[in-house]
Amino acid sequence: MRGCKMRNVPRMIKVRSFTHVLDRGWSVDPLPAMDGDHTLLLLFGGAAYRQHPEVLESLSRAFPQAVKIGCSSAGEIDGDTIHDDSLVVTVLQFSETTLRLATTPIDATHSQAAGEALAAQLLDSQDGALRAVFLLSDGLQVNGTALVAGLSEQLGADVMVTGGLAGDGDRFAQSWIWCGDSVESGRAVAVGLYGDALICAHGSYGGWRAFGPERRITRAQGNVLYTLDDQPALDLYQRYLGEYAADLPASGLLFPLAIRSEQGDEQVVRTILAIDEEARSITFAGTMPEGDYAQLMSASFDQLIDGANRAAQQLLTTMRASTQAGVLIAISCVGRRLLLGERAEEELEAVLEAMQETTRKTQPLVGFYSYGEISPDIREVGCSLKNQTMTLTWLSER
Predict the structure, then answer these.
(1) d(CA 125, CA 131)
(2) Residues above pLDDT 70, as percent of the chain
């Protein structure tokens, strides 16, 4: 048109968050009209929703075209508040970023193959460059180390992979994944985000400290630990825990293990998922390599809250102080929540305060407490399974 100049219209991601409580219903009515093939639905919920499929079905009807993923939790994060037995739903409507869903069955024995299967589905796409992957998995039927390795080794270090393992409070009975329109256990799901418009960033930090003697892992298979220094692992663990031993496996979340290879000084943290009284073994969220060294860990309130602040500081260095609208996804460990107790919300406040100081605006914060956290390493060399860690993911568009 004569006299008119074409202007570049800035891309703008739209974000809405809302909740559901079984005896109160949805916090919004009607549900947001944000459906479309560029829309991503993230859902984190209490384990009880497995018995209430009608609630999730209402989301499927309201968002038939959207990519939908979610999982059960050990606490749902909604801003600086932690809920139990609720749903926290976040709708992200992208302008240019394209989305692709991948899913596969999973168990502890075939977790690496499951990761490779997810990668193959995500790479078989004509949607442009794969920039980021958000991954959720059943938290009990998994070897998280192998799952992440299978996925990230196929995708390469240039693709940011974040996510977590589904939870079940401190019960460790059954976790579930919401994939598309179905709820299942024994499944992993990932969403790929494609295109140059995407802004993505990450941060993670623990805050735990090792104590006591190191012991050699003398017998293990995958993520099942049988002996330390040729002594039954469960016997040693119960001896150290003393009065806490009666509450295993839940009490083990307060005393994770630091694992160190014989060749290096760097430690990874591993959290208990289950115990076997007959075999005197302990199942962890990640691989327990024979020949490596294990050491008990503990933490104080202040160390964990400071760790959450440091995770936010890391995130800010990778997001380059973007002031664009977006969503901040926090996945923290159930062990951190149990140790912090009534002070657990302080780690969320520490994240939000750090973000606001730099970006000068309050960022929407959602997420869940998990049985394992997935994030790139501090030096951005690949991705790994974390435990007992606050991890942060930032998604937006430029």
Answers:
(1) 13
(2) 93
Lowest mean pLDDT among 3-7, 154-158, 330-334: 3-7
Sort strands 390-397 and 372-376 into parallel, antiparallel or unpaired: unpaired
Q: Which two tokens stand for residue 263?
A: 């060749």
**Residue 6 resides in a domain:** no
Closest to 102 in 3D by CA, of 114, 93, 86: 114
Under a CB-based contact definition with an 8 Å cutoff, are residues 20 and 26 in contact?
A: yes
Mean pLDDT of 111-120: 98
When mean pLDDT is compared across 139-153, 204-218, 295-309, 374-388, the lowest value belongs to 374-388
Per-residue CA distances from 298 to 152, 241, 301 (Å): 30, 11, 10
How many Cβ atoms are within 10 Å of 8's Cβ, its own excluded? 5
Closest by CA position to 146, among listed 191, 109, 177, 118: 109
Q: Which domain does 233 fall in, by range?
A: 209-298
The pTM for the full model equals 0.90
- Provide the β-strand partners of residue 273: none
User: How far is 140 from 266, CA to CA, in rounded Å?
Assistant: 26
Q: Which token pair is 72? A: 């059960």
Closest CA to 354 of 393, 321, 398: 321
Same domain (yes/no): 118, 90: yes
The count of domains in the chain is: 2
Q: CA-CA distance, 20 to 85, in Å (whole number)?
A: 9
Nearest to 354 by CA among 362, 342, 345: 362
| Whole-angstrom distance, CA of residue 170 vs CA of residue 371 | 10
Find how far residue 158's CA is from the centre of its chain. 19
Q: Give tens-digit pLDDT for 40-87.
A: 999 999 999 999 999 999 999 999 999 999 999 999 999 999 999 999
Same domain, 256 and 141: no
DSSP assigned state of 170: B
Tokens for 338? 């149990």
